[in-house]
Amino acid sequence: GDSGSGDSGGSGLPDSAAGGETDEVENREGPLAGGLPAAAFERIGVSRLGRGDFQEAGRAFQAALQTSDGDRRASFLVAQAELGQGHYELAAGAVRRGLRTNPAWVKSDLDLRDLYESPSVLEGQFEKLSLQAARKPELSFLLGFERFHSADPEGALVAFERALKLDPQDTAARTYRDLARAQVDAAHGLEDF
């Protein structure tokens, strides 16, 4: 219904903000729905991500970044949407931006597996990313990040070692590598050696 504000489709957004996506705005489910906090956009995006609709998930996560209460985890969610679309460099950039904004993220309990309805979707993304990282070593950090936050510290360790060969001064890769190594050692009972 119309809100009486004289805007496009009663969405609460001026015509220019709706960007021609009035069908998405009108149903209040779309990522361009006005006045929502970052967490609401993130919920919409996670729902779409879980169903494999990476483009719409990305739009929702980008909208979360644009809100006044923009949540720092939105960059990491944007990375998942970009990864799902095969935009590996954009995904890597989103992770790096997120880590600059929120460096404590390395110690978060994020488990990327929780974002997907089917584990096979995430595994398929890992396979594609692994192939790309074999050709483009600069994607090793992204692969390590994905593996680390999917409870695969051994895979993460290998990827972060490769990232550090490319850039030995990469402090984020070093931090993640050390955390992954500690997890691998703990799993094998080597933490005291």
Instruction: Describe the sheet with the most strands.
Output: none
Integer-rounded radius of gyration: 19 Å
| Low-pLDDT ranges | 1-31
- State the share of residues found in helices, binned by percent: 55-70%
> How far is the first residue's CA from the last residue's CA?
67 Å
**Residue share in β-strands:** under 5%
Kindly describe this structure:
61% of the residues lie in helices and 0% in strands. By secondary structure, the protein is an all-alpha fold. Helix 3 runs antiparallel to helix 4 (54-66), helix 4 packs antiparallel against helix 5 and helix 5 packs antiparallel against helix 6. The chain starts with 14 loop residues before the first helix and ends in a 6-residue tail after the last helix. Residues 1-31 have low confidence and may be disordered.
Topology:
Layout lengths: L14 H4 L3 H5 L11 H13 L3 H13 L7 H11 L3 H14 L17 H17 L4 H9 L4 H14 L4 H17 L6
Helix pairs in contact: 3-4, 3-5, 4-5, 5-6, 7-8, 8-9, 8-10, 9-10
In short:
By secondary structure, the chain is mainly alpha-helical. The protein is built from ten helices and no strands.
